[in-house]
Amino acid sequence: MSKLEIKENKKLVLKNVLIKELKGINMEDLNNEINKFLNTLKVLKVQTFGPLITKSYGTNIHEDGTISTNYDLMIQAHNYLQYKKQFKVEKQLECSHCIYLRFSDKPQYLQYAYSKLDIYFYENDIESNGVTYNVFVSETEDNIVVDIFKPVVIV
Q1: Distance separating alpha carbons of residues 42 and 39, to the nearest angstrom
Q2: Which domain of life does the UniProt lineage start with (predicted)?
Q3: Which distant-in-sequence residues (6+ apart) come within 8 Å of 90 by Cβ?
Q4: Could you tell me the pLDDT band of residue 144, with boundaries at 50, 70 and 90?
Q5: Domains annotated on the chain, with CATH
């Protein structure tokens, strides 16, 4: 069996979602913003369930060589409505018709999962809508498990 097995027509469903939108963020600042988001959740004592989910879309390379992207940080929370002043909230987010891949290995190899998805789209003449969802299932120093969902453009 392949180390990186791709599955078609998967659906991502999130319920009671808190969203922190990061528009045009420099890639260098991303880890800091993720830590700030997670720390804010702890300070507010948000009752979360499930792992951190990210949505990446709209990456730009600027003339000075810096890279910026639009990045949403999401978490599911039992008491999500009480945080609508701090975060964007959604009762349910659904993303159908996704190509899916589960990555489980050392964090430095995660880029291969994205490359494999890109090659799969290319080889199968499938068009992506430019969005990637990452569900960070678990993470240790030596291993990261990420479910990657890439929506397909239906024609």
Answers
A1: 5
A2: Bacteria
A3: 14, 17, 19
A4: very high
A5: 6-151 (3.20.80.10)
Q: Is 62 helix (H, G, I), strand (E, B) or coil?
A: coil
Three-class SS string for 79-126?
A: CHHHHCCCCEEEEEEEEEEEEEEEEEECHHHHHHHHHHHHHHHHHCCC
Which residues 6+ apart lie within 8 Å of 103 measured at CB? Answer: 4, 109, 110, 112, 113, 144, 145, 146, 147, 148
CA distance 79 to 75: 11
Q: Give the phi and the psi of residue 66 in degrees, each rounded to 5.
A: -75, 150
pLDDT at 2: 60
Distance between CA 68 and CA 89 in Å, rounded? Answer: 24
Q: Which residue has the higher pLDDT, 84 or 67?
A: 84
Please tell me the pTM assigned to this model.
Answer: 0.91
